[in-house]
Design goal:
With 624 residues, this protein is α/β, with parallel strands linked by helices. It has three domains: 176 residues, 3-Layer(aba) Sandwich (Glutaconate Coenzyme A-transferase), CATH 3.40.1080.10; 236 residues, Acetyl-CoA hydrolase/transferase C-terminal domain (Glutaconate Coenzyme A-transferase), CATH 3.40.1080.20; 170 residues, Aminopeptidase (3-Layer(aba) Sandwich). The protein is built from 21 helices and 35 strands. The strands form nine sheets. Strands 28-29-30-31-32-33-35-34 form an eight-stranded mixed sheet, sandwiched between helices. A hairpin with a 2-residue loop joins strand 30 and strand 31. Helix 20 packs across helix 21. The chain starts with a helix and ends in a 6-residue tail after the last strand.
Length: 624
């Protein structure tokens, strides 16, 4: 469509167009990288325009003027999310923050709870049918323009054309300003590379092939994306497409083929990145841009099976409460999309959410896992909503866990130097038992190499990993699930009670080198349950030989689990300087004796007093 000939009266200069804005108007401005820069500048430069209230989701251009007293006398900014560029202004009280779920912001406009007189937007040139595209900014922009009495659009040839709810006809726009200029770019800073790599290492374990992902606002979630390059057929349903997605699209890691809802389409609401990303999105039918009240609706999100939400936080308290939008009394970012996607993922079949954050802030001076949120900090996500928390020190699964269990899960992924302090504070608040032992003051990243998988004949998989302090409750349940005979074979007594003291001592003595315990976990529903435990420990016989023992749940026996577990323990023991195992076994425990002799056919077996045999096994003497 040729605008000069078909819409001649609507085509104005920027300075002419903004004169249509009356004093006292409530003006909506398009979001983030899609904001109409020329219209914003023209409005600010026109000194006759006074007492304007501006509503915007993410603001960049206004940040160049926010410290000008004259600007502050004429304009009042009300933002739904505080961008990095506006953060200092927020700290200084120069802007007003509206806390709201992204899914609900459009309804604030439609219901006239927030009335709009003018909408300033940016669009692509119209096609031959007269349709312009909102391009990379549909989010709340679509609702904003629909609800404003006056719509002024900057036409920019650099704005991509996108599919979905992005189209608006020239008849629905009151005035046009043609101005070609580069779009705002948003390239997150790369920082804390080592921490990011370690957090990404754990998240990679949680993200499975074929999952549908949401990646939240912020540099950390975006920085994690390149570390998912080994995945297959990921899908996307997210608020914002950022620069980190681009390599995954280009390398066909993201295909959207396995999505249960809107397959083959990457569903999003806006796009923020580089010119290269904007050109990739341009006229690309893979991308389906919808309004925030659709993209962020938990009921819509839940239609995606195996949905994983990945977002960040400023701090997490020991009960699982999450703060994302403020540092104490200082507003820092926004409610954004976190709660919408966390609740949607919880309703998704096989879905869950991940909160990722570094364990410390201020160059390691303070812990981000805290006994209680900072004074003034807002609870963006409640303790009942949180599933999984990840730091560079591990994974804390809080789903369905008690306060006591949450404390132990979170303390063990806190920075080592803060773990004892966190446990002591938890004791003061009666979250845990007074005699609770704290997790070790050690970086246990090295035990990640001691993780193994064993596939059962029925196709299920048992995951093996070292025992952790947070396994105390699961260990208890495991031991109480065993038959009396199995317990007798393991402990040489008819043990009736597996006390907290006993279980704490089990993991407290572990150094994961000279003393090691491995647990086998089977996925049952949403949770993983322990089905096998194996240990070796220093013995009095010789510093070169460790005493070994293990037990498998009764219904899981005769499936090769014990033999596999013995192999794991041997590999770890050899790495830590041992040359063989020693075991004491009841003489009628023929199954256990068979496991040992099968692997070590030349094992030395000696009869001892009390119906027991002692078995000596050299690692060099085994069947492969």
């Amino acid at each position: 469509m040729d605008l000069p000939s078909s819409c001649k009266k609507k085509l104005l200069s920027a300075s002419e167009a903004v004169k249509k804005i009356k004093n006292g108007s409530r003006v909506f401005v398009g979001t983030g990288c899609g904001e109409p820069q020329s219209l914003i500048r023209a409005m600010i430069q026109d000194e006759t325009i006074q007492d304007i209230i501006v509503y915007q989701m993410l603001s960049f251009t206004f940040s160049h003027y926010i410290n000008d007293p004259n600007f502050l006398r004429r304009f009042q900014l009300k933002l739904f999310f505080i961008s990095l560029a506006m953060r200092q202004a927020a700290f200084e009280g120069k802007i007003d923050y509206i806390p709201a779920y992204l899914s609900e912001i459009p309804e604030l406009f439609y219901s006239k709870t927030i009335g709009l007189d003018v909408a300033l937007i940016q669009v692509s040139p119209p096609d031959k049918y007269g349709f312009c595209s909102l391009g990379i900014s549909v989010d709340i922009t679509y609702a904003g323009l629909k609800c404003a009495d006056l719509v002024i659009a900057q036409i920019n040839p650099n704005m991509p054309r996108t599919f979905g709810d992005s189209l608006i006809h020239v008849d629905d726009i009151d005035y046009f300003v043609y101005k070609e200029e580069p779009l705002v770019e948003s390239i997150p800073q790369k920082k804390n590379k080592e921490i990011i790599e370690r957090i990404a290492f754990y998240i990679n374990q949680l993200v499975h092939d074929g999952a549908t992902l949401q990646i939240g606002f912020g540099h950390l979630p975006n920085a994690i994306l390149p570390y998912l390059m080994n995945k297959k057929d990921l899908g996307i349903h997210t608020q914002v497409i950022t620069e980190g997605f681009l390599p995954l699209f280009e390398n066909k890691v993201i295909t959207n083929k396995k999505k249960s809802y809107l397959p083959d389409r990457a569903v999003a609401s806006l796009c923020m990145g580089s010119e290269k990303l904007y050109r990739f999105v341009d006229n690309n039918p893979m991308f389906y841009f919808k309004s925030s009240d659709f993209v962020n609706d938990p009921n819509v999100i839940a239609r995606n099976d195996h949905f994983i939400s990945i977002s960040s936080a400023l701090e997490v308290d020991l009960t699982g409460q999450i703060c994302t939008d403020s540092k104490g009394y200082l507003f820092y970012s926004g409610i954004g999309d976190q709660v919408d996607f966390i609740r949607g993922s919880k309703m998704s079949k096989g879905g869950f959410s991940i909160i990722a954050l570094p364990s410390t802030a201020q160059n390691g001076k303070v812990s981000r896992i805290v006994p209680h949120l900072s004074e003034g900090a807002g609870v963006a996500t409640t303790r009942a909503d949180v599933d999984i928390v990840v730091t560079e020190y591990g994974i804390a699964d809080l789903y369905g866990k008690s306060i006591y269990q949450r404390v132990m899960e979170l303390a063990q992924i806190a920075h080592p130097k803060f773990r004892e302090e966190l446990i002591n504070e938890a004791k003061k608040r009666h979250y845990i038992f007074p005699d609770q032992l704290p997790p070790k003051k050690e970086d246990l990243i090295f035990i990640e190499k001691y993780k193994y998988n064993y596939k059962l004949p029925d196709g299920k998989t048992i995951e093996f990993r070292p025992l952790l302090p947070s396994d105390e409750f699961a260990s208890r349940n495991f031991f109480y699930s065993l038959k009396e005979t199995t317990i007798y074979y393991r402990f040489f007594q008819r043990k009736k009670v597996f006390s907290r003291e006993m279980l704490q001592k089990e993991w407290a003595r572990l150094d994961y080198k000279r003393n090691m315990t491995i647990v086998g976990l089977l996925q049952i529903g949403r949770n993983k349950r322990i089905v096998a435990i194996g240990s070796y420990a220093e013995s009095d016989i010789s510093p070169d030989y460790a005493e070994v023992a293990f037990v498998v749940r009764d219904d899981m026996q005769n499936k090769g689990i014990a033999s596999f577990l013995l192999g794991i323990l041997e590999n770890i023991a050899k790495e830590n300087g041992y040359k063989g195992f020693f075991a004491t076994v009841l003489i009628d425990n023929t199954k256990m004796i068979h496991v040992f002799k099968k692997r070590y056919p030349n094992a030395k077996i000696q009869r001892s007093l009390g119906g027991e045999v002692e078995i000596y096994m050299d690692f060099e003497d085994k069947e492969y």
